[in-house]
């Protein structure tokens, strides 16, 4: 594949603060949701109140009473209904339907059940509370017409898992193109257990289009990443799918024919137009019987994510001055694809940026 001239700007990129609605996002870890308790979160600039009913069902509502706008989280939740602190209006939280307005009298004709607070589809999956955030003004959502809830790939019933989270002081676009950037590893993530600047060497990877995303086709993982060498001869596949998901799977077969695997689902979720959050969920059966393997993996994984977080905090200092930015050659081609895919999603038009399989080259 031929080279392109260096871009002097992010050509064709969607506006930095624009967010994709009409999809599922992880709001928080579902384990914090206890029956009879409410928890708040911010998602795509929307204030949410979440909780778990007595029957175990979780819910997400806009944290505003439709009557006078006071946060519903200031009120009470008895495990069945949410009661507003201001005037005692009660709502069934999964659908948002009003159940009672205490101030009404026998001569009032208003029917409370015709009033709805805003609620959002909310599903517990892989330990997260996933919330579907529809476009503004779309009305009540038909749950039967929603896309599938994201799920971490798993290749067996016996596995260990861990999750990591970090807040990033940048908009979702910068978070995502940082997530898919293949060239920063030897600099941001240099460590004895990962990579060094001296380990840089040419890379060649094949990519192919998939619906609303692209795939780094099955390949041997980078030889200059120490943990991969422990796996023997694994094969890895990496997908990026709108609006914000990176899915990596690694499968290896030992000399004795035993298969082992690792998978991760990483999301970059917009919290506001200017901030986002990265969540990493991983599962594996590699070294399943090794004592403390989860604690060890979590320790090194946390350090890895912290390195990205520290870099984004430093980058945010420069971005305050609205500098002109560049996307260059093959190493930044995935970022260009992301912006093209996002623009097509936002406008409802535009061809997939990959007409077919391509091969990219870079050094890292």
UniProtKB/TrEMBL annotation:
PROSITE patterns: RIESKE. Keywords: 2Fe-2S, Dioxygenase, Iron, Iron-sulfur, Metal-binding, Oxidoreductase. Coiled coil: none annotated. The keyword Acetylation does not apply. GO terms for molecular function: 2 iron, 2 sulfur cluster binding; dioxygenase activity; metal ion binding. Pfam families: Rieske (PF00355), VanA_C (PF19112). Signal peptide: none annotated. Residues 24-131 form the Rieske domain. This is Phenylpropionate dioxygenase, large terminal subunit. SUPFAM superfamilies: Bet v1-like, ISP domain.
């Amino acid at each position: 594949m031929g080279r392109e001239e260096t871009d002097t700007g992010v050509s064709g990129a969607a506006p930095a603060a624009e967010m994709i609605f009409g999809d599922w996002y992880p709001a928080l870890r579902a384990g914090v949701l206890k029956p009879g308790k409410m928890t708040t979160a911010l998602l795509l600039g929307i204030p949410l109140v979440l909780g778990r009913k007595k029957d175990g069902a979780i819910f997400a509502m806009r944290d505003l009473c439709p009557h006078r706008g006071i946060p519903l989280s200031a009120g009470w939740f008895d495990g069945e209904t949410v009661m507003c602190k201001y005037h005692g209006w009660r709502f069934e939280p999964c659908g948002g339907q009003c159940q009672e307005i205490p101030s009404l009298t026998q001569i009032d004709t208003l029917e409370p059940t015709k009033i709805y607070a805003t609620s959002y589809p909310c599903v517990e999956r892989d330990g997260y509370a996933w919330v579907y955030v529809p476009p503004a003004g779309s009305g009540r959502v038909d749950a039967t017409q929603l896309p599938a809830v994201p799920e971490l790939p798993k290749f067996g019933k016996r596995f260990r898992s861990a999750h990591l989270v970090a807040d990033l002081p940048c908009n979702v676009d910068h978070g995502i193109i940082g997530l898919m950037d293949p060239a920063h590893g030897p600099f941001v993530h240099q460590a004895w257990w990962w990579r060094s600047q001296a380990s840089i060497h040419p890379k060649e990877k094949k990519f192919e289009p998939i619906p609303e995303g692209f795939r780094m086709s099955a390949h041997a993982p980078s030889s200059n990443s120490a943990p991969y060498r422990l796996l023997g001869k694994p094969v890895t596949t990496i997908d990026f799918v709108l609006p914000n998901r990176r899915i990596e799977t690694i499968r290896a077969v030992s000399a004795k024919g035993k298969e082992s695997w690792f998978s991760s689902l990483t999301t970059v979720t917009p919290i506001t137009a200017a901030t986002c959050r990265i969540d990493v969920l991983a599962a594996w059966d590699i070294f399943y019987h090794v004592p403390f393997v989860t604690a060890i993996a979590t320790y090194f994984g946390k350090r890895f994510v912290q390195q990205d977080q520290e870099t984004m905090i430093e980058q945010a200092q420069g971005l305050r001055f609205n500098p002109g930015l560049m996307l260059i050659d093959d190493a930044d081609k995935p970022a260009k694809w992301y912006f093209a895919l996002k623009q097509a999603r936002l406008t409802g038009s535009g061809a997939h940026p990959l007409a077919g399989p391509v091969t990219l080259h870079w050094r890292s």
